[in-house]
């Protein structure tokens, strides 16, 4: 019996449930090109209005996961883990966490994405390293992971092609922010990656896709439930994205910052360092390698002893990049022609740094994309010299803007100044880690 796509769409428009078989048929026919984009978009819009039950969301997740290649890892070696961030500004944690978990005795072959809109992409950051290869075959990925414990690759066209197809349509039809579609997209990719243990970093705040804590918590709980239904060990952190996570926003600049964290050249209370240690420790505890408190100590030791840095160097070398980037990142990585300094016009405290506004400014300087075909300038970006909540004096430098002239200087400085809100008294703020689920 042939699949009736029109009836499938009409049923969802009326709020009627789909069977798991119907969803599987729809997904796999779409990947084969037998369902046109306009019908896929019609169904996605119907889902935005009517929603999906958990059973439907699970069926969609499994169908997208099995729409292409699904990796499997041998059970005899070290545990295979994965992490996922829902996206933010200055979120460079993956570049620290991946070599850190490898140094702690786990394996991670991570597939990451490119940036779109105001959020940065891990693949774009790594490709600012000369020669770094992100397009890895399955055999190349396995070889690197087995040799150094970690690798970061771009999403293969053979993995979750249904998700790539659906997302490309969601992105241009205003259907990105539906909870079940987000959860299915994320978990399907994690299932295809083959890891049994997964930690989700769900961002909340102005620079995140989820602006509201309750919505973010609901999404996290749905993804955990989906993971458990698919026999995966999944937990989540809700973390603040009201201000950029790191001091640097921009591809090469974020690589430099990640290397500084790996070289222990940042304060112990640095947010990027704290979050990276927490994610790595959570994964170790989830694998049963250590209790959480002890795992945090082990993560700190792996940083202090240079073991995580060594794994990062090994990963860069095996993926074709210049390993000297570890010693001399400022010399190896591309640099902008001009660095503009924005100075404070008053005394007081930084009440807020608008992560969304910072991300959009970096994008417009050339460090991000408005469309998937836009080219990235790896050298541009912003380095925050002051963080949210810090005191400042008139004339102090608030940030350095690395520019290659995509925007006029006056406009650049004006927009940068609007990213900051000031106060005469020390402001309160959300904790970095809001909740552990």
Short descriptors:
single chain, about 425 residues, alpha/beta, Transferase, Pyrimidine Nucleoside Phosphorylase, Chain A, domain 3, Pyrimidine Nucleoside Phosphorylase, Chain A, domain 2, Aldehyde Oxidoreductase, domain 3, 3 domains, four-stranded mixed beta sheet, four-stranded antiparallel beta sheet, 17 helices, globular
Describe the structure.
This protein has 437 residues and is an alpha/beta fold. It has three domains: 5-51, Transferase, Pyrimidine Nucleoside Phosphorylase, Chain C (Transferase, Pyrimidine Nucleoside Phosphorylase, Chain A, domain 3); 81-329, Nucleoside phosphorylase/phosphoribosyltransferase catalytic domain (Pyrimidine Nucleoside Phosphorylase, Chain A, domain 2, 3-Layer(aba) Sandwich), CATH 3.40.1030; 334-423, Pyrimidine nucleoside phosphorylase-like, C-terminal domain (Aldehyde Oxidoreductase, domain 3), CATH 3.90.1170. The chain has helices at 5-13, 20-31, 37-50, 54-65, 93-103, 122-126, 138-148, 161-173, 179-193, 213-229, 251-262, 271-286, 292-304, 307-318, 329-332, 355-367, 409-418, and strands at residues 81-85, 108-112, 150-154, 197-204, 233-240, 248-249, 338-343, 348-353, 381-384, 391-392, 397-403, 420-423, 433-436. The strands form four sheets. Strands 1-4-5-13 form a four-stranded mixed beta sheet, with helices on both faces. It starts with a helix and ends with a strand. The model has no long low-confidence stretch (mean pLDDT 91).
């Amino acid at each position: 019996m042939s699949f009736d796509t029109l009836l499938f769409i009409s049923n969802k428009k009326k709020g009627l449930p789909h069977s798991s078989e119907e969803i599987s048929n729809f997904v796999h026919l779409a990947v084969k090109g037998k369902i046109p984009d306009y019908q896929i978009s019609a169904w996605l819009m119907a889902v935005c209005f009517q929603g999906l039950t958990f059973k439907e969301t699970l069926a969609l997740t499994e169908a997208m996961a099995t729409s292409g290649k699904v990796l499997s890892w041998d059970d005899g070696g070290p545990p295979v883990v994965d992490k996922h961030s829902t996206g933010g500004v200055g979120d460079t944690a993956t570049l620290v966490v991946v070599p850190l978990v490898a140094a702690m005795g786990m394996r991670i072959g991570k597939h990451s994405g490119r940036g779109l809109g105001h959020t940065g992409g891990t693949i774009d950051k790594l490709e600012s390293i000369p020669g770094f290869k992100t397009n890895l075959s399955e055999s190349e990925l396995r070889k690197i992971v087995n040799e150094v414990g970690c690798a970061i690759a771009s999403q293969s066209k053979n993995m979750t092609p249904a998700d790539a197809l659906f997302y490309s349509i969601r992105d241009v039809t205003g259907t990105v922010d539906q909870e079940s579609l987000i959860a299915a997209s994320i978990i399907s990719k994690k299932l295809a990656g083959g890891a049994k243990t997964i930690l989700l970093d769900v961002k909340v705040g102005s620079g995140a896709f989820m602006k509201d804590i309750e919505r973010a918590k609901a999404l996290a709980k749905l993804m955990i439930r989906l993971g458990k239904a698919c026999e995966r060990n999944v937990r989540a952190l809700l973390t603040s994205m009201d201000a950029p996570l790191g001091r640097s926003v921009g591809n090469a600049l974020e690589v430099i910052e990640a290397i500084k964290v790996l070289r222990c050249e940042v304060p112990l209370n640095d947010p990027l360092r704290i979050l990276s240690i927490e994610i790595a420790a959570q994964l170790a505890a989830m694998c049963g390698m250590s209790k959480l408190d002890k795992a945090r100590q082990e993560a700190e030791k792996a940083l202090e002893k240079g073991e995580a840095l060594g794994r990062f160097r090994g990963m860069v070398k095996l993926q074709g990049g210049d390993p000297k980037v570890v010693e001399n990142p400022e010399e190896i990585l591309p640099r902008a022609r001009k660095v503009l300094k924005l100075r404070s016009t008053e005394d007081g405290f930084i009440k807020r740094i608008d992560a969304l506004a910072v991300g959009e400014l970096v994008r417009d300087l050339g460090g991000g994309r408005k469309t998937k075909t836009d080219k990235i300038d790896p050298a541009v970006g912003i380095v925050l010299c002051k963080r949210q909540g810090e005191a400042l004096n008139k004339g102090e430098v608030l940030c350095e803007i690395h520019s290659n002239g995509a925007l006029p200087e006056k406009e650049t400085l004006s927009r940068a100044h609007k990213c900051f809100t000031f106060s005469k008294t020390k402001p309160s703020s959300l904790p970095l880690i809001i909740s552990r689920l």
